[in-house]
């Protein structure tokens, strides 16, 4: 990381590679990038591809982090998502089952060959199907994950509709898996298209791409997929080198792994800075997903991303805050119309109120091992950020918002209309005004 400090900050950075699925603050970053500059990246699929690639040490294959000039610990970075475009022509996914004989405690982090007893073995592809990933040393199939019920899907050229295939068509794609997956040149993952699952046939799907991973580098090395309160809980007391205590997890994670479907073009995400330079990274693009990602996985794809990033000084939150597109807000969290404001002003005059508060939407992310604890985390973060009590946040989220599920088991959004005066004190008011034309 020290090498980046002597370089002149750039107006744009093109990301040219990936981590080994571990976010390590001691590894060199790309850049530096000027505050307000642009990051352009070609991302690799997350989830299933890395999950069946034992040499990778996390559930995704994210981009190398970018150093942002002027970002200090305790600041935030404002990430404006300018573009997300799918480049994969097809993908495969499904609900998983786990075999503990193929891992050291955690199949996402420490895959092993049960014959060689080697952790993170190098592997290759032989044939098609769920035994196609084989150990280079002994030739044994290595499969910490199996697909219990899965599908292969192809996308139309307009990137609007997908269709799930039968077994014969899925196996035909598998013969040229890396091509149809559009794996970036520097990606090392095996494409999940090699598995050719086909339990769900002839189903149409809508494409609505977003990033499952977008955030800043944690202040201690951790697997990328575990940079969140729910997946991160698997690191607590784990029997592999990336084990953390509960206190370390809470201190160092930045909750970059959200799987929130509103993290899409036009949205604005504010992320905490826990290492000098922030280390902005991304990955795990999804072609689409319903709230909660209830199957555990969705349609992971390669794609191109353009972000604009600027530093926000003294950000009073240890996790992300999202300003979604207007259409992605819950009905009660949408800004009030001019007509509604006039009717409220009339009521105020009628009942002797001097003012009606000005409000704007905000979505505060909460994560934890389980859903209830994630909700509490989100409420507490919102209260601290906006200088409110937790009961006040509960009331506002109830009458002017909603609790939304990002991912089962433990990522949520506390979305509500907050007073602009409080947002201004938190340094977020102008972001809300710009985002919602207030």
UniProtKB/TrEMBL annotation:
**InterPro entries given for it?**
FmdA_AmdA
Superkingdom, natural source: Bacteria
A single Gene Ontology MF term assigned here is: hydrolase activity, acting on carbon-nitrogen (but not peptide) bonds, in linear amides
- SUPFAM superfamilies the UniProt entry points to: Acetamidase/Formamidase-like
Provide the protein name.
Acetamidase
Instruction: Tell me which species this is from.
Output: Falsochrobactrum shanghaiense
């Amino acid at each position: 990381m020290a090498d980046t400090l002597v370089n002149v900050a750039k107006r744009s950075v093109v990301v040219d590679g990936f981590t080994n699925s571990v976010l390590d603050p001691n590894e060199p970053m790309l850049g530096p990038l000027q505050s307000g500059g642009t990051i352009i990246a070609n991302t690799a699929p997350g989830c299933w591809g890395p999950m069946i690639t034992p040499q990778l040490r996390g559930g995704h294959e994210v981009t190398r982090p970018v150093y942002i000039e002027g970002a200090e610990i305790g600041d935030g970075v404002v990430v404006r998502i300018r573009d997300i475009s799918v480049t994969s022509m097809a993908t495969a996914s499904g609900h998983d089952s786990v075999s503990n004989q193929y891992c050291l405690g955690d199949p996402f982090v420490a895959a092993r060959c049960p014959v060689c007893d080697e952790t993170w073995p190098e592997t290759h592809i032989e044939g098609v199907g769920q035994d196609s990933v084989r150990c280079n040393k002994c030739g044994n199939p290595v499969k910490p994950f199996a697909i219990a019920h899965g599908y292969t899907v192809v996308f139309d050229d307009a990137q609007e509709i997908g269709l799930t295939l039968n077994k014969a068509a899925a196996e035909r794609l598998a013969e040229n898996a890396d091509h149809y997956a559009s794996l970036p040149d520097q990606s090392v993952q095996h494409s999940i298209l090699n598995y050719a699952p086909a339990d769900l046939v002839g189903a149409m799907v809508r494409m609505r791409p977003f990033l499952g991973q977008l955030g800043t580098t944690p202040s201690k090395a951790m697997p990328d997929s575990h940079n969140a309160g729910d997946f991160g809980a698997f690191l607590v007391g784990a029997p592999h080198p990336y084990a953390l205590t509960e206190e370390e997890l809470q201190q160092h994670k930045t909750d970059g792994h959200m799987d929130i479907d509103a993290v899409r073009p036009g949205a604005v995400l504010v992320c905490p800075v826990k290492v000098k330079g922030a280390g902005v990274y991304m990955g795990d693009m999804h072609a689409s997903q319903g709230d909660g990602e209830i199957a555990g996985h969705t349609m992971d794809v390669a794609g191109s991303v353009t972000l604009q990033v600027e530093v926000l000084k003294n950000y009073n939150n240890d996790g992300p805050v999202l300003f979604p597109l207007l259409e992605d807000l819950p009905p009660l969290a949408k800004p009030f119309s001019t007509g509604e404001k006039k009717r409220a002003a009339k009521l105020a005059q009628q009942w002797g109120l001097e003012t009606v508060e000005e409000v704007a939407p905000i979505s505060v992310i909460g994560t934890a091992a389980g859903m209830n604890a994630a909700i509490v985390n989100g409420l507490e973060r919102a209260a601290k950020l906006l200088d409110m009590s937790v009961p006040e946040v509960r009331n506002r989220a109830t009458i002017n918002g909603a609790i939304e599920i990002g991912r089962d088991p433990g990522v949520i959004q506390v979305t509500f209309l907050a007073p602009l005066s409080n947002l201004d004190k938190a340094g977020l008011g102008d972001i809300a005004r710009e985002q919602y034309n207030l």
